[in-house]
Amino acid sequence: TNLNDITSIDKRLNNIKAFKEKKVFNNNKRYIKSGGNDYWESGVVNPNLVLKDLISIIHPELLNENSYFYYRKLD
């Protein structure tokens, strides 16, 4: 759920450029009431939203948006 959780598994991850620049994302922004991750529930029928998120992450200058539907930036 955050960068510390990830690096607690393996400290070497701190050496990766994305970690140094705090540009790490996860697809856990939306959870449904029963505890499931909505990415896996509705992402398969909304590939346009998944693709939009990925474009915004990889090439933020193309969409000029910083809001994501399924993904969130980890702190």
Shape designation: flat
Number of strands: 2
Which structural class fits the helix and strand makeup?
mainly alpha
Q: How confident overall, as mean pLDDT? A: 91
**Strand residues, percent:** 5-15%
**Amount of helix:** 40-55%
* Helical segment count: 5
Q: Main beta sheet: strand number and arrangement?
A: 2 strands, antiparallel
What is the ordering of alpha helices and beta strands?
A: HHEHHHE
Order the strands across the largest sheet as they lie in space: 1-2
Which parts are unreliable, with pLDDT below 50 for 5 consecutive residues or more? Answer: none
| N→C terminal distance | 8 Å
Produce a short descriptive summary.
With 75 residues, this protein is mostly helical. The chain is built from five helices and two strands; from the N terminus they run H-H-E-H-H-H-E. The chain has helices at residues 3-9, 17-20, 38-42, 47-58, 60-63; strands at 25-26, 72-73.
